[in-house]
Write a structure and sequence with these properties.
The structure is a single chain. This protein folds into two domains: about 5-105, 2-Layer Sandwich (Pseudouridine synthase), CATH 3.30.2350.20; about 135-255, 2-Layer Sandwich (Pseudouridine synthase), CATH 3.30.2340. The protein is built from seven helices and twelve strands. The chain has helices at about 35-45, 120-135, 150-160, 170-195, 220-230, 235-240, 280-285; strands at about 10-15, 25-30, 55, 65-75, 90-95, 110-115, 135-140, 205-210, 245-250, 250-255, 255-265, 265-275. Strands 1, 2, 3, 4, 5, 6, 11 and 12 form an eight-stranded mixed sheet that branches. Helix 3 (about 150-160) packs across helix 4 and helix 4 packs across helix 5 (about 220-230). The radius of gyration is 21 Å and the shape is globular.
Length: about 290
């Protein structure tokens, strides 16, 4: 996976139409080898505005070829593609809109992925892909959620141990997210373990994104959550006192329009769409064991 940047292509799906008029210039960018925040800073420089006036819906992979939308607050100002030219990204299109683009406004992402150096049989992979297409896949938060070598979790643990994971969530948001995601993954993993031990898997149920307040899963799901998080009271307590409200996340997801074909005996090409917040790498991990 990602033997080359062009092996992992992502296009943002907004899910709504632009108004065509308004104070915000909408810029569709194709980038490679750069992260979303860095692009936002460059667009601010090129357009002569403060970075806080640049909006975007989500973070895209750095080591990939990705397209996404940015909004630039430019009332009564017009820019063309040449004004935003930069060697590290390509401007695909411009539009106007009445509202700033904000995190989570997009509907999802479209993926075009090539897997290289396959050592298993095409037949086995086809069977696994057909199962994933039919049943879905575990909706894990993937490795990138936790930072390089799990660094975000390490920092979250440090803050929790020192009773400092609270207060200004803007500064600690990435660590809050990592901690919540870790607890969710533990619950999901316990459901899968129970399934292998003979329990029916709750395909249509949700797992907790921990915070203050009570969720209302059914008795079986609630029992599994208590088992999975029995050894994590400090983390639960800390998240309950950060101002976050407990939410729920689907345990299983389906990929929309999953298509695949073998380029040769050792290369597989995949195409599919996922809702926002769902990781393509969570689907890929169900295909086989990956060796790095």
């Amino acid at each position: 996976m990602k033997a080359s940047m062009i092996d992992f292509c992502v296009d943002e799906i907004l899910g709504f139409e632009f108004s065509g008029i308004g104070e915000h210039l909408i810029v569709n960018i194709r980038k490679h080898g750069q992260n979303s925040r860095w692009i936002a800073a460059r667009l601010a420089e090129l357009s002569g505005i403060e970075e806080r006036h640049v909006g975007y819906c989500g973070l895209k992979d750095r080591y990939a070829v990705t397209s996404q939308w940015y909004s630039l607050y430019l009332p009564n100002r017009c820019l063309n593609m040449a004004d935003l030219s930069h060697p590290d990204f390509e401007v695909i299109s411009l539009n106007r809109h009445r509202k700033k683009l904000r995190r989570g406004m997009h509907a999802g992402n479209s993926f075009n992925i090539v897997i290289n150096n396959i050592t298993t049989s095409q037949e086995k992979l086809e069977q696994r892909l057909e199962t994933i297409d039919h049943l879905g896949f575990p909706n894990y938060f993937a490795e990138q959620r936790f930072g390089f070598n799990g660094g975000n979790l390490v920092e979250a643990a440090r803050l929790i141990d020192s009773s400092r994971l609270k207060g200004n969530r803007m500064r600690q948001g990435i660590f809050l997210s990592a901690a919540r995601s870790w607890l969710f993954n533990l619950v999901l993993a316990r459901h899968i373990t129970n399934y292998h031990d003979g329990t029916i898997f709750p395909f249509d149920e949700t797992g907790p994104l921990w915070g203050r307040g009570k969720s209302k899963p059914n008795k079986v799901v609630a029992s599994t959550e208590r088992e999975a998080l029995a050894d994590w009271p400090e983390w639960k307590h800390a998240l309950e006192h950060t101002g976050l409200t407990q939410e729920r996340r689907k345990l299983f997801m389906h990929a929309d329009g999953l298509k695949f074909n073998f380029l040769n005996s050792r290369q597989l090409k995949l195409r599919f769409n996922l809702p926002k917040g769902v990781y393509a790498t969570a689907l890929l991990r169900e295909l086989a064991e990956f060796n790095r």
